[in-house]
Write a structure and sequence with these properties.
- It contains 6 helices and 4 strands; from the N terminus they run ααββααββαα.
- By secondary structure, it is mostly helical.
- The N and C termini lie far apart (38 Å).
């Protein structure tokens, strides 16, 4: 058992009871990504500095020991890390329900960038603050058919709501 995977699977319950993101295409990739984000936060909770976290999900569970995903470098596990590389896949079980596991790397990389963002040498946000931002975005600002652009807006709005004292440049 890996704590990151257990946290990931349990967080699907949070999504199911809040935004209810459909498990297909971009909403499904967001569903997977939010679970990845919280699985990684849970597994790394004892370490206050995310710049030194283990960003691999499921490392050691596959026969070859490879991770399922790596939020710090999604391309390492065959995922895109930017929207320009979005993979259009059929919305079928063989097509990963339109790429829910494949394209989650795009949103995962954005979350990694937020969690590890620095101003000077200090983190812009503590991990608990980032968790609050993403939790508020998912549970209060997304709906069943939300797209990546909707999540971006929801995360920015949540950060602005929770941290009004930050300059707009810090939240852009």
């Amino acid at each position: 058992v890996a704590l990151d995977v257990v946290g990931h699977e349990m967080f699907h319950g949070v999504t199911d009871m809040s935004s209810r993101l459909e498990y297909a295409l971009q909403p499904g990739a967001l569903n997977e990504s939010y679970s990845d984000i919280f699985g990684i936060i849970i597994a790394n909770r004892p370490n206050a500095d995310p710049r030194t976290w283990d960003w691999q999900l499921g490392a050691g569970l596959l026969p070859d020991g490879a991770p399922f995903r790596d939020m710090s470098d999604p391309t390492r596990c065959g995922q895109p890390d930017h929207m320009r590389d979005f993979k259009v896949l059929p919305n079928t079980p063989r097509g990963d329900n339109g790429g829910v596991h494949t394209n989650s790397g795009i949103h995962n990389k954005a979350a990694y960038n937020i969690l590890t963002a620095v101003k000077g040498t200090a983190l812009v946000f503590a991990p608990d603050e980032v968790a609050a931002i993403f939790y508020l975005a998912l549970t209060q600002r997304l709906s069943r058919t939300s797209q990546f652009a909707d999540s971006r807006t929801a995360v920015l709005d949540s950060a602005r709501t929770l941290f009004r004292a930050l300059s707009p440049a810090a939240l852009a």
